[in-house]
Structure formats: structure tokens, C-alpha cells
Amino acid sequence: MNLHEHGNRINDFNKIVFERRAIKKYDTSVKISRDEMKDILTKATKAPSSYNLQSWRFLVIESEEAKSKLLPLAIFNGQQYNEQQIVTSSAVIAIFGDLEHVASAPEIFNAEVKQGSMTENVKEYILEAINIHYSNSPDHFRKDVALTDGGLVAMQLMLVARSYGYDTCAMGGYDKENIAEIFGLDKERYVSVMLVSIGKADSDGRPSTRKPIADVAEWK
Ligand SMILES: Cc1cc2nc3c(=O)[nH]c(=O)nc-3n(C[C@H](O)[C@H](O)[C@H](O)COP(=O)(O)O)c2cc1C
Mind telling me which residue stretches traverse the membrane in this protein (predicted)? Predict the structure, then answer.
């Protein structure tokens, strides 16, 4: 067990939100155990998703071998991107969206009926509504859903990681077209959302600024 496993937890939501920074260099001695990573992912997947269909899928890339498969995917015009995050982090979590997520709708709603939070009638109603919605939507609809769900779970993952005393960096600088295939996933089925490096920060991140709310929100 490493020192961080049951320590450094943060329960103060303001600290979690205001002190999260995109961290590019991690303490290489810190590994996140599989049990702890499962806890983090369990909390991350409490994120909302469209019809609760939970289209997200995760690849926890932690071994040297898997990281060395990932590194070449972050080379553009001969230049390596995101190397430090990938190499020094405890893991890089590759988030994908399953374009066939609708197939698991019966399983998800049967579980709700079983736990007593939904009646059989409501289940049938929702399954029919989903069926109508999906069969009357354009092709890009499933991908839009997968990317939206994936973005929400990524954000929740980064906040949960902070609550466990870990740091993260979202990454979009890699080859999204080919990552699924390189890691043995069906590329027609799994759309790449983003990578999230996770570990214990080795140096403080740069405090970033935000636009004033007056520039990004309006009231009607
Ligand atoms: C979708 C997305 C993709 C990103 N891609 C990268 C990346 O490839 N490499 C990187 O170092 N940071 C990346 N970032 C991190 C942003 O640069 C960072 O979140 C932003 O500058 C704000 O800083 P903060 O997160 O510390 O507040 C990405 C963030 C997001 C949300």
C-alpha cells in the first residue's frame, strides 16, 4: 500500500474544484492499486448519462508495455506530445464511448426493476421511448451521446481523483482515430473521447485563469 492510498483524502468540495490543475508531471513512485482505481471509477461512473445508458468504457493504461503502445499515438509531424504525462503518471485512463450502448438498455432497466426503484410498466415505457428516439435520430446521434456522456464521466473522474488526493490532466493530443484498434478494440464500435492521466503531482500545476462569467453567460 502506498502512502497516498488511504491518506490525503479531500472532502472539501471548494478545495477539490479550485485546486484542481492540469498536472503534467507526476511522482513516479506512486502507483494506484487496482482496488483504489476501481473505487475511483465507481464514483466517476455515478456521473449522469443519456437515459442512464452509461456509454463510457475505460482502458486503464498502467503497464510500461501499454504506455509504450500509447506514446507513438501522441506524435504529430514528428513531434511527441504529452510524453511526460504519459510516462510519469500512475496510469493514463483512455475513455471511449460505446456506439452500441443502446443494446444494454434492457439489462440496465431490469436491474432497476429488481432493486425496486422502477416498475415493470415504467421500464417498458422507457425502453419503448429509447427505441423510438434512437430509431428516429440521425447517424451521428449515437456518437454525440457517447462523446457527451464521456465528457461528463471524464470531469467527474478528475474531481473524484482529487478527492482521493490524486491529480489529473485531460488530454486530447493523440490519435483518436487509431487508439481503439491499437489496443484491440473494435474501432467501428468504440469512439475515443479523451485520455486522462492520473497520479500524484510532482510539481504544482500552473494556476489558470477563466473568463469572467459576464463573457460566457447571459440571462434571458
Ligand atoms: C478535452 C481536453 C483536452 C486537453 N488536451 C490536453 C493535452 O493534450 N495536453 C495537455 O497538456 N493538456 C491538455 N488539456 C488540459 C488543458 O490545457 C487545461 O485543462 C486548461 O489549460 C486549463 O487548465 P486547468 O485544467 O489547470 O485549469 C486538455 C483539456 C481538455 C478538457
Answer: none
